[in-house]
């Protein structure tokens, strides 16, 4: 076998090795969405559960916001390259509303990770008659924010005295 | 004024004091929705967090289901009579899909509790091009199921061998 | 052929005629939903298009409402027993919001028709930054209201002077 | 005061008058969304009603698509710079599903028009028991496509023999 054929075989073998069909998408870390809201997701538990923090930039009524805790779960944590997930946020210091996100983690052709999510924002209403109007729906795309990890959201959170209505 | 009249006035005054305008709605316990799916919510943590289990009666593809864990949070746990809440369900043993609910706990005029919720069901898709179609939306109303408490869902879950697609 | 066999054949033939597998669901007519809002849908065009009128009982901000025109379409009008449909409502005299419904017409086991719908209510916002919060979502089930047909909604509409915010 | 200063003052005054804070957003014309689907909206009626055509690039089941008619309405057509609107699409030649969009027309800081919309896609199901899973939800942003106007969608539509399931 000539050296040319050997080189070709080697290149083919290597390219097979180094070209994974799908790069696995990792939920943990710091993420930012189109509205410049920030989200930090902790490492995942064995069962796919995770915790984190959310710093919104937008509110229903304007006003300042605080870092809020989130809790959620990823499906089939070890087997799937692009897992689906869902989480909920507590806005408890400044709102009687609640938000749930559901989405999937993707890696695009250039290797960039993104979280494609949809959310529901549920506001409290004072009676069953007003229940019909209490749920808003929308979409958010998060991309990974490259920064030193750690409790970074705390350093980014502005001092805040005002009360504010529900947020995303 | 006679002692009878005085007693009557006292009773009236007290009953006014001890009759709250709104009876507080409690998330914990066993609930059933229109599709006969069952949900059991644990006692709440100090911060409003809760865990539970969900036994669905419906699936996207038919097939049998298993009890699935859920995790969520209630807003402002101690201050609000009719709190909002959100939770997510792991269907991990039989699906790469995930579900998030958001809703509010109400007590109607007859004292009956109900959970008015909306949900999103996110399916896994194989590429970003298919992302647009991955999210379904719907509504569920849960009423309290009066049964002996405990790990009752486990006794209600049928034996199950089949794989099944995402569920609600 | 004996008379027994003849009778059997006759019974089979008749039962085939009088037992439709699915009774066809008709969109046209007067409908009422859980909130007591009323809707009247005209006869359908050849291509499935229809017009109608909507009288809501609920508004985002309270206040009185007026009969509003609606316009929509039914899919595959002649071939399907339980067609899907969608329509939009103009709230133009009292709101800069708009509503779209999508649903399916069913006939239940007892022959009762119902429209199972979901809707989106889009409010106007003043800037792109507020766009995220502009869409609400919900569900409505309509049942047929048995009343003399015609321009009945007009006789049911209360006199109305106030401006009111978007409605369903 | 010299004539130069007077002219300047006049120009300033006029420019204040003739520079609207918000450029009016026009629905009519040709639009394209993130998935490269195309939409052509006709001129509006006096009451805000419009017709048009939609050429989707994505379907639930894959397969080819055809140009589909749409019909809708814009709120308060003459008074609002950034009107809300809603419309429905007939997929009648290739699907028993239906789609409703609701959104708002914006002009961004650089004068570029966009339609921010959310949609529901309702599939037909065979029974009330399956009704819960029939509605999908998503978001689309359309930007104006600069091309010669007219029946341009017809020249862009590929020849198509296959049947295809519901689309967006």
Helix count of chain A, per DSSP?
2
Overall tally of structural domains of chain A: 1
Largest interface: A-B, 48 and 48 residues
- Share of β-strand residues of chain A: 35-45%
Report the end-to-end length of chain A measured between terminal Cα atoms. 64 Å
Taken in chain order, the helices and strands of chain A follow as: HEEEEEEEEH
User: Can you tell me the CATH superfamily of chain A?
Assistant: Avidin-like
- The fold-level CATH name of chain A is Lipocalin
- Integer-rounded radius of gyration of chain A: 21 Å
Specify the CATH class of chain A.
Mainly Beta
Protein name (chains A, B, C, D): Avidin
Subcellular location (chains A, B, C, D): Secreted
Pfam families (chains A, B, C, D): Avidin
Function (chains A, B, C, D): Forms a strong non-covalent specific complex with biotin.
Question: What key phrases describe this protein's structure?
Answer:
Lipocalin; biotin binding (chains A, B, C, D); globular; mainly beta; 8 strands; glycoprotein (chains A, B, C, D); homotetramer; Avidin-like_CS (chains A, B, C, D); eight-stranded antiparallel barrel; disordered C terminus; 168 residues
């Amino acid at each position: 076998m000539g050296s040319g054929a050997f080189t070709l075989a080697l290149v083919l073998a290597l390219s097979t090795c180094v070209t994974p069909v799908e790069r696995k998408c990792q939920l943990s870390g710091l993420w930012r969405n189109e509205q410049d809201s920030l989200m930090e997701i902790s490492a995942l538990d064995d069962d796919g559960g995770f915790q984190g923090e959310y710093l919104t930039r937008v509110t229903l009524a304007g006003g300042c916001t605080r870092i809020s805790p989130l809790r959620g779960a990823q499906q089939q944590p070890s087997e799937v390259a692009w897992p689906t997930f869902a989480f909920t946020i507590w806005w408890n210091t400044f709102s009687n509303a609640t938000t749930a996100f559901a989405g999937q983690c993707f890696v695009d052709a250039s290797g960039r990770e993104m979280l494609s999510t949809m959310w529901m924002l549920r506001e409290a209403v004072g009676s069953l008659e007003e229940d019909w109007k209490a749920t808003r729906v929308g979409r958010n795309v998060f991309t990974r924010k490259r920064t030193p990890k750690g409790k970074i959201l705390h350093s980014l959170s502005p001092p805040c005295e005002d009360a504010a209505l529900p947020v995303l």
